[in-house]
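hiii so my PI (J.) wants the whole complex modelled not just the main chain, which honestly fair. so below is everything: two entries, each one labled with what it is. i double checked the lines twice but i was tired so who knows lol
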Amino acid sequence: MWFTTFIFANLWGRRTRSGLTLLGVAIAVAVIVAMFGVVKDFENSLTAMYLENGYDLVVMDSGSMGIDDGALDESFAAKIRTVAGVQETHPVLLLYSSAKDPQTPGRQTMVSMQGIRCDSPDARNLEITSGRMFVDGEKPEIVIGERLGDTLGKKPGDSLLLIEDHKFDIVGVFRSKNMIIANSILIPLDAMKIANGAEEVTQFLVILDPKGRADMPRVQSEIRAIDDQLKVYPVREIVDQSQEIRGVRAFSWVTSSIALLIGSIGMLNTLMMSVFERTREIATLRAIGWRRWRIAVLILGESTLLCALGAGLGILGAVLMVRGLMLFPDVGHLISGRISLEVILKGFALALSLGLLGGLYPAWLAARMAPVEGLRHD
Amino acid sequence: MTESPLPPTTTPLLETISVSRYFADGDVSAVKEVSLRIYAGQYISLVGKSGSGKSTLLNLLGALDEPSSGTIFFRGEPLANYGDLARFRSQELGFIFQSFHLVSVLTAEQNVQLPMFESGRTAPQRLARAHELLELVGMSHRAKHLTSKLSGGERQRVAIARALANDPSLLLADEPTGNLDTKTTEEIIRLFARLHQAGKTILMVTHDPTLAAQAEITWTMVDGRLLIPV
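here's the output for the full assembly
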């Protein structure tokens, strides 16, 4: 018999309690991994959205609450271009708003819309799979991502009601590996301004030349110096400016902390009960010569194995939960359904820490048990 | 001093000098000024009424409890010099309890292997030794059975095999037939007799006169004091 056989036998011998504890740990891990998995997935997609098109900096309104908020005069674009090191500047109007089918206006889906010009990298790099690209100007035309098209059941020739129920014609469908882009609508910037009833844009996307990339802090500083209304972020930091991401992160932390607390209490309770119930067994092991550290390792081994199994089950549950979320159009279009390995490993490590921490006190209690008192225990 | 009627000339395996054990801040004296010597190969039964201090003395001799006063020697060395008493118990002592104290979630062969985790044996060596001992106590046919599925007599035989796992110098048995029927008690008596014939040193606490009569020496405890052998 291996030592681990004894650990496993102790858990298997108390199947119901072990199973319930394992379930508690699995639920905690599933919640944590699923929530942080979705957040990370969204963060990665958002960062990739900018990086894929070669952008280096995002210039936003200093009074904005998030990346789809703010009102910047488009004339800032020309001033930003004058900064040494700036190669291209592209105005963007971002909106997260409802899209309705003109045939069934009662049904609406929240979608991400981007007002851009055809000379921007977003438009230049677009892979149109059916129909054509829109034309710059005030004509209400749009191209939609393939995934969104599938979700809404729309194709070129159809139309959608966007931004205060303005009717836009779908002229093309594009493909993108990025799930945010693949679920978004691209609109000619001028047409979107009209629908939005405002001349301002929400941000400027900036591409730097090699000299500018080598001296990014200076470029940022000079852009900020143009006007107090401007704030500048490197693309890799933009996820921190997303109000949605900040909100989901905070929610994830709160939910995960509660899940973790419940999991820890469950683990502690199970092991305390287990040690208490096995007082005579532990005392017998001490009597037949087991040293304190071996008793402690036995209890810690049980808690760690329980948590490792719970983590495995929880990660599987998280994958299924995220896949399940994909079935809901309002959420599904925001996530790719993938959970990064980093999040999975962190979830596993967290569960193991839970096992070790939850097992420490019961292990200490068991190890310090006086055999003669334990043997008298009824 | 209370001694064996057959005092060999060699160093006692176990010796106590004026050992006492008090409880409740010294108000209750369970063992009073006990001095004894146990020599290798002896088979001793310890009898006495309930509450006479037999089990307390056994716990002291088994290094499960510490005396309030007096000294216990093993092979001439005070127990305190052994440092890690768990290691001492593992190497030198084998315990047999009235209620068997087997681990119910383990099989017979797994229970027998438990003391061997402290012996440095490898897993295959532990298994081979467990089979050897189960064969010795006539339980090899039940090796793979959970101990919770065994009868009282079978459990006690597994417990005896477990006590022998590390080939201890001294077997300490506390009412080993207390929970067994007459027929099974006879089997256990025969088993102890065989172990004694094989050279094992045995100290057995018992109420059972038949079992006590099997021992070559019988000590009696009365109110915490060990009486001169009958």
